[in-house]
Amino acid sequence: MSDQEKEVLKEEAAPETVEETAEAVEETEEVAENLAEDQEEAPEGEDKLSWAEKRAAKKQAKADKKEDAYKEQIATLEDRCKRQLAEFENFRNRSEKEKQAMFEIGAKSVIEKILPVVDNFERGFAAVEKEAENDAFVSGMNMVYRQLMGELDKLGVKPIDAVGKEFDPNLHNAVMQCESEEYESGIVAQELQKGYTYHDLVVRHSMVSVVS
């Protein structure tokens, strides 16, 4: 046995852990196996590997195997991380949509409560006599009404066009039929109550009379 082989055996002779003990036993067996192989004569024409070269080759093979295992674990963890990120992104988008939907439902509920006030303003103006249109009180109420409608318009509340339009069940609520020389059948001839939309959402359908 060479001095190099003796030094290797000395270094591996006192393991500190169970794992190191197992590795030391395995390497000791490898040393004995390699020594036995070195004592055999190699066939003519073939290079005979030294004990150190054989040991280094086996260590490299083990290292390559561990490296492949680590790469596989890393790929698995990266895939899991990407899936979790995608799930989180989907959850965030879904939460934003639900939040927006809840906000629109809440806004719709508030607007529905304001519309009767708008109706009362319009009924009041319709009942004002022509000679009283310039009255200070009427003018003040008109200013309040216009301010209210301006704020609703800024929020995206728009009146639904009805008279002269083809009846649309998505926008209009037909409560009666009538005869008309001005409009054809299926056209809205009279608006009994004004309808409104909030963005693309119908807050209240127009109550209309349709030509039969």
Write the layout of secondary structure elements.
Layout: H1 3-11, H2 18-39, H3 51-127, H4 136-155, E1 157-159, E2 172-178, E3 188-193, E4 196-198, E5 201-204, E6 206-211
Parallel strand pairs: 2-6
Antiparallel strand pairs: 1-4, 3-6, 4-5
Helix pairs in contact: 3-4
Summarize the structure.
By secondary structure, this protein is of the alpha+beta class. About 60% of the residues lie in helices and about 15% in strands.
Task: Please characterize this protein's 3D structure.
The chain is an alpha+beta fold and 212 residues long. It has a domain at 159-212: Head domain of nucleotide exchange factor GrpE (Nucleotide Exchange Factor Grpe, Chain A, domain 2, Roll), CATH 2.30.22.10. 60% of the residues lie in helices and 14% in strands. The chain has a 3-stranded antiparallel sheet. The model is unreliable at 12-16 and 40-47 (pLDDT under 50).
Q: What labels would you give this structure?
A:
60% helix; 212 residues; three-stranded mixed beta sheet; three-stranded antiparallel beta sheet; Nucleotide Exchange Factor Grpe, Chain A, domain 2; 14% strand; alpha+beta
What do the pLDDT scores average to?
79
Distance between the termini: 115 Å
How would you spell out the order of helices and strands?
Answer: HHHHEEEEEE
How many extended strands?
A: 6
CATH architectural name of the domain at 159-212 = Roll
Rg of Cα set: 45 Å
- Helix-residue proportion: 55-70%
Q: Quick one: CATH class of the domain at 159-212?
A: Mainly Beta
Number of helical stretches of at least 4 residues: 4
Uncertain spans, ≥5 residues at pLDDT below 50?
12-16, 40-47
Helix-strand category: alpha+beta
Which topology of the domain at 159-212 does CATH recognise? Nucleotide Exchange Factor Grpe, Chain A, domain 2
Taken as a percent bin, the fraction of beta residues is 5-15%
Q: How would you describe the shape?
A: rod-shaped
- Largest sheet report: 3 strands, antiparallel
In order across it, which strands form the biggest sheet?
1-4-5
CATH superfamily of the domain at 159-212: Head domain of nucleotide exchange factor GrpE
